[in-house]
Amino acid sequence: MFIIIVGGGKLGRYLCRDLINKGHQVVVVEQDIEKSNLISKQYGVEVINGDGSEKDVLKKAGAEEADLLLAATRDDQDNMVICQLAERQFDIKRTLTTVNNPGNEKLFNWLGVNVAVSSASILTALVDQEEILEEMYENFLNEDDEMKMIRLTVRDTAPAKGMLIRELDLPLESVIVTILRGEKPIVPRGNTYIKNGDLLMILTKNEFVEELTTMFCPKKVNEKEETVV
């Protein structure tokens, strides 16, 4: 198979070596130039130096011909964006991502990522990829997670205002899907700042709505909750 690995950290390098040894064609995408050079020299594979969440970078890596994409960055939000871009823009049939917060696995599947597994279980999954991953996918689809999309406008008094998304202590099964800043839609990344007035679309469970409201849009006395969509 032709496999693209996004992320050249410790896990990405391990998977690169493992997949090459199994006879797969591998291309790695990595932002850090030093890591890119190291991977290219050590494993003899093509390495694209750039941001894997950008369409042009994935296209340069050969996404139009790839059989599988593996998002192996340390940021769940970035992994989500990478997998959605791979599936929707390049029609890659199989995406696999590491999940740094294991509680986000079902959430990623709900968003359209074919398979999301924790960093530990991904290594086992790759040994017998098709059979194991198909079984995991079916299990995810059969569970009712009661997910919902809520809309919250960040207030000046919000504890989360001014923080990076990666710094937020979000509930494990919650993710910021998009941000509307004025009239400009923003794809949330780990290094995206939360600003006063941002309109956040958040996918979450009913049980976490109050916690998220307190984080982004603390209510005044006798004030009604934000609109839930």
For this entry, give a set of tags.
alpha/beta, four-stranded antiparallel sheet, elongated, disordered C terminus, Rossmann fold, single chain, 2 domains, Alpha-Beta Plaits, six-stranded parallel sheet, 229 residues
Tell me what you see in this structure.
The structure is a single chain. By secondary structure, this protein is α/β, with parallel strands linked by helices. The protein has two domains: 2-141, Rossmann fold (3-Layer(aba) Sandwich), CATH 3.40.50.720; 147-216, Regulator of K+ conductance, C-terminal domain (Alpha-Beta Plaits), CATH 3.30.70.1450. Helices cover 35% and strands 23% of the residues. The protein has eight helices and ten strands. The protein is elongated, with a radius of gyration of 19 Å.
Identify the CATH class of the largest domain.
Answer: Alpha Beta
What CATH calls the topology of the largest domain is: Rossmann fold
Quick check: average pLDDT? 80
Instruction: Decide which structural class fits the backbone.
Output: alpha/beta
Approximately how much helix is present in the residues?
Answer: 25-40%
Tell me about the biggest sheet?
6 strands, parallel
Under the CATH scheme, the architecture of the largest domain is 3-Layer(aba) Sandwich
**Proportion in β-strands:** 15-25%
Tell me the name of the CATH homologous superfamily of the largest domain: NAD(P)-binding Rossmann-like Domain
Radius of gyration over all CA atoms, rounded: 19 Å
List unreliable stretches of 5+ residues.
Answer: 126-144, 225-229
Distance between the termini: 41 Å
Question: How many domain modules?
Answer: 2
